[in-house]
Amino acid sequence: MSALAALDSTLEGYAVPAPSAPARRSQPRLVLVPTGDAVLSEPQGRLRPTRAGRLLITTTVLLVAMVTAFLGLGGGAAASSAPQRVTVQAGETLSQIAAEHMSGSSITSAVAEIQLANGLSSAHVQAGQTIVIPKG
After folding, report:
1. Residue 97 falls within a domain, yes or no?
2. Second label for 9, Cα 20 to 30 Å away, from 23, 79, 81, 126?
């Protein structure tokens, strides 16, 4: 009988849960901002760059490193130096000039490089002729 008494006090004989308070939405609240001397006394927070800022910094560092590496490996120095010019002496051959001024490579390849650099069709040179010695 006590169960019947509980049902009688509800809406049309059905048990209805007690109404709960509606959930409150958190709304922005006003915040006091310090002014005057109070602003200077508080420590500044650490700056945090955005994703785009980090990408810009990384790209800039890589670009500077690549330019430095290019110039450091002699790419910039070779372009600025003038080619060496030699005047052929009496009795001197192109092989002798190649052996004297291009000691880093074989004589035949050095002669071929000198011929290409000067537009020569053969290895014959004349006394007083100016020859450009390529860097190599």
Report:
1. yes
2. 23
